[in-house]
Amino acid sequence: MRAGRGAPVIAVLGCYGAVGGSVVRRLREAGAGPLRLGGRDLDRVRALIGTGSGGPAGAEAATGGAVTGAAVTDVGGMEARAGADEAVAVDLRDAAALAAFCEGCHVVVNCAGPSSRILDTVARAALTAGAHYVDVAGDAAVRDRLVAAGLPAGSTVRRGSTGQGSAGHGSAGHGSDGQGFDGQGFAGHGSAGQSRAGRVVVLAAGMMPGLSALLPRHLAGQWFDRVDRLTAHVGGVDRFTPAAALDYVASLSDGYATPLAVWRGHQVIPRASRPRRGVELPHFPGRVNAYPYLSAEAERLARSLGFAEVEWSSVFDGELTLAALARLHDLDADTAAGELVRTSRLEAFGRTPYFQMVFRMEGEAAGRPVTRTLVARAADSYELSAAVAVLAAGAVLRGLVRPGLHDAADVLDAGAVFQALLDDPAVTRLEVVDGVAPDVEVEEGVL
Q1: Measuring CA to CA, which residue among 112, 33, 30 is closest to residue 69?
Q2: For residues 155 and 423, which has the higher predicted lDDT (pLDDT)?
């Protein structure tokens, strides 16, 4: 791909955060751009572009703080035009600056947080500017606000002739015909000043929610005729960023998840499970702690795919973060989030961080009982979020997603996402295995 004059501008807000930095890197590796990068600290944005605060002077943006770089680099045979990138100082509390940031963009990818406080602020600015919108987070609260504002909800994807699970196999996100960037299908997406009509909004385009539904969809669709039971264990030794911690604290009280609940008999059963300490779980190293809950996303997944049972747990490979979670109800949101950041860093000190998603399904295929497990592992969860966000942006810009409001798990091709992750250097393990050894519980107790 050669991003030349008239190529679609992709804006990344929160570009130097844990997710945003990875999104920028992935977009450049895919040859996408030019990029407009935004954040409150202009020096950090400029450093990401490669100019630094003392770099070459460039054009000033409407916000009064943009600079363009000069380098053009060749990535994987595709020309990634870093020289066309813009660095923009933008504060989400400044409506004029946010509007100017979105103006003239084809798609705005929001990696800023916390989502629980930003809500639909960036989405509305992007839509007013005539841009498509992809949000790494933005679950139920954002969806409700956008629907109330009149944005039509939808859940359809326009696929190629290859059908479900085959688009972009082997190269999705790497510049082929998959849900990535190949320089085609970008033209004709309009310019600044368009109305919201015809715009696409993709929410929950991250690790969880997002990938946490896409991977089970792939497993169910490729290896089962019917799934009766899903058991999910998600976690490891991962760090909380301040924004992620605030969103996690908010999720405990905003209806995103029901602690200790399971899905059984095709319905939510409150307080049907309990935390487990010191258990050995398949594919996790050593003893870990599991805290069960049922998220709104998991419930939607169970309803849409007809699962009879779902048990879902967060996994904590260590004691400090789990102990901090037990104290959160006594703290205000900011203090609680700070405690999570501090303890998760202490937990990871001197250890090799990892984040793992293990989905075990039991059901039937070709008239026979089947048990299969999908295991996905990366150095951290933020790389997985960035991977999904970039695939979502690519699908939107290539015209694969119909106008309206969608969740990423409803419109991305689960097979193509799985294949893209197979080729992703940040993913250290991704495989589907037959059967699984039963959970061996050691020193089980209430946490």
Answers
A1: 33
A2: 423
The whole-angstrom separation of Cα 48 and Cα 104 is: 21
* More confidently predicted of 14 and 7: 14
pTM of the complete model beyond 0.85: no
Measured between alpha carbons, how far is 280 from 284 in angstroms, rounded to an integer?
A: 7
Q: Is the peptide bond before 275 cis (omega within 30 degrees of 0)?
A: no
Residue 133 CB coordination number (10 Å) = 31
Say which residue, 165 or 268, is predicted with more confidence: 268
Contact 37, 88 (CB under 8 A): yes
Q: Please, which residues have CB within 8 angstroms of residue 260's CB and are 6 or more apart in sequence?
A: 270, 271, 272, 273, 274, 275, 292, 293
What's the rounded Cα separation, in Å, for the pair 245 and 248?
5
Tokens matching residue 84: 């066309």
HEC assignment per residue over 270-287:
CCCCCCEEEEECCCCCCE
List pLDDT tens digits, range 404-414. Answer: 999 999 999 99
Bridge pairing between strands 276-280 and 440-441: antiparallel
- Lowest mean pLDDT segment, chosen from 166-180, 184-198, 335-349: 166-180
216: preceding bond cis by omega (within 30 degrees): no
